[in-house]
What does this fold into?
Amino acid sequence: MQVRDVMTRAVEAIGPDTSLVEAARFMRDESIGFLPVLEEGRLVGVITDRDITVRATADALDAQSTRVGSVMTKPVVTISESESIYEADALMERHTIRRLVVLDGRGALCGVLSLDDLAVLPDREKDSMVEP
It folds into this structure.
């Protein structure tokens, strides 16, 4: 089974010049805690609700004037949509992350794969993720 078979395709993204207030409101309104950050269509980072809390609030940064680009996570761990779910699971474990940005063959954002996506796999698929 490949990443493309289980990833979430409907992915929202945000620009690096967006204020933290706008990003937080968007996350709240869409009930999401993770947004890829694109600049001119190119992936430059990701912003999470945790980034806003830990990197901005803990340092008393002004959420209206602080931009996503100054607190986003970079570099981003990515995976190709054609990789196996075993490789995705191993990559998440190796980097201690819960989500992977998925890129298509041209290197463009095409989805996100989360631990939740892997958790709902049938048991036979989960069993196949264990390295022989």
Residues 1 and 84 are 6 Å apart (CA to CA).
